[in-house]
Amino acid sequence: MGHFPTTHQRVVDLLGQRIVDGAWEPGAPLPVEDTLATEIGVSRGALREAVKSLVAKGMLHVRPRTGTRVLPPEHWNHLDPDVLRWKQTGDAAALLRDTSELRRIVEPAAARLAAERADPGHVRALRDALTAMETAAAHPGRSGYVEADIAFHRALLDAGGNRLLGSLGRAVEIALEHSFVISTQTPGAVEASLPGHRAIVRAVEAHDPAAAATAVQALIEAAEQEIARSPGMPSDTA
Amino acid sequence: MGHFPTTHQRVVDLLGQRIVDGAWEPGAPLPVEDTLATEIGVSRGALREAVKSLVAKGMLHVRPRTGTRVLPPEHWNHLDPDVLRWKQTGDAAALLRDTSELRRIVEPAAARLAAERADPGHVRALRDALTAMETAAAHPGRSGYVEADIAFHRALLDAGGNRLLGSLGRAVEIALEHSFVISTQTPGAVEASLPGHRAIVRAVEAHDPAAAATAVQALIEAAEQEIARSPGMPSDTA
DNA sequence: GGACGTCATTCATCCAATCATTTAATGATT
DNA sequence: AATCATTAAATGATTGGATGAATGACGTCC
Fold first, then answer.
1. CATH architecture label of A7-75
2. In whole angstroms, what is the distance from residue A124 CA to residue A106 CA?
3. What is the pLDDT of residues B177-214, one digit of tens each?
4. 3.40.50.1820, 3.30.40.10, 3.40.50.10160, 1.20.120.530: which CATH number matches A91-229?
5. What tens digit of pLDDT does each residue of B110-129 get?
6. Chain A residues with CB-CB distance to B110 below 8 A
7. Closest by alpha carbon to A175, among A88, A76, A73, A77?
8. Chain A residue at shortest CA distance from B44
């Protein structure tokens, strides 16, 4: 459906996925540009542009004569949407754990800031997202519910006016989408989550930071329980 | 001294700084590749590679016929080290405020996780960083103290084992460096901060999450007061 | 008059070939 | 054995051209 991926995107995806999958050890050099380009089937220029994209994400380091080497995973920008997507296909469970932890840390605090400082524009974006969620929930098939949920999430983190928090929210959205899909597919979960979202909007509108934080926390915990009960999740026997 | 910057780095810095400084309105198109390349004084290939780097940071969007357009700031990856550096030269006060807020949210929670889950390797990295801070503090001139402080900060956020938190910490390090420099230049601040750092290491080694969190919080608040008292900071009259 | 298809234009896209620069590995010199 | 010049191998950068995609204008059909 989506248009054909351009060559550049194809090469970036190919290399990024290979790196995440551990095709090359950290510190190990990739094949030289000429051979790697012919192996992939693109020109050297296209390969170099793709490599530059991965350098910008902190995954590669390239130097004359030495070649292109994979940087250790600690150096990767794990908050980059592409990196998150590549990691999703691999160790999805670990990513879900990390994402959930980050949510518990950041979102209640972000809700607190939003309740303290949200201006009318931010409040309206929040209410619009909530309305979209409600209409999508009423609509049979729930088309658009996940998108509305993400928009709500985004509006909440933007409402505090802290751009770093905004970027952080946008980063984890890719990882969040998966959990939202699970919640939407679980019967009754959508109806159960709507009151929680309404409570958040109420708290932000009333400029009640404590209420906003607790409402978000309750929502996150409910979502985590949905995920834990979803099929394909190993019960925590450790 | 650092070597001469390569053409690629030069162009990325030039364009990134220009975008952050608002040389082009969000949504406005940049000059076409040919003219922009000749204007900067590089070839199309070098310009294209630089543009790809900025696309990877979420600042540009390029399409045939439409051209290269600046994306709205909400879409930028504000957690990218380069983006933070470019923003630093402009509205440094706002960035300092956002960074400080993020620290207060993330670092106590990260310290809590570190105390819960730090393995011996992480603990050793933490202690090594502390030792480096102590030796740098004893050394006249304090050379290397800022670097050691950043290494400590990094080790703490890595110790929790959450890669997203690790990337988050690495992201704000660039912004943090400034405040560390201020603290180091303030007489007596270095000696005052060392016990706080030792308390963090003790709490992590003792697997005491609450103590770790409070120790970090105390350190952050002390640093904020140092910044507030530093010259060039407008007193909070609002 | 409005909707739909066609076409030309304008860019980015991708490729191929070439030269310059950096740098490690090697060899020569003392 | 340590230092310095040489060399070769890889990236860095440039040029020119061919291709493809998106847009706006134009014309046709209902």
1. Orthogonal Bundle (1.10)
2. 22
3. 888 888 888 888 888 899 999 999 999 999 999 999 99
4. 1.20.120.530
5. 999 999 999 999 999 999 99
6. 105
7. A88
8. A45
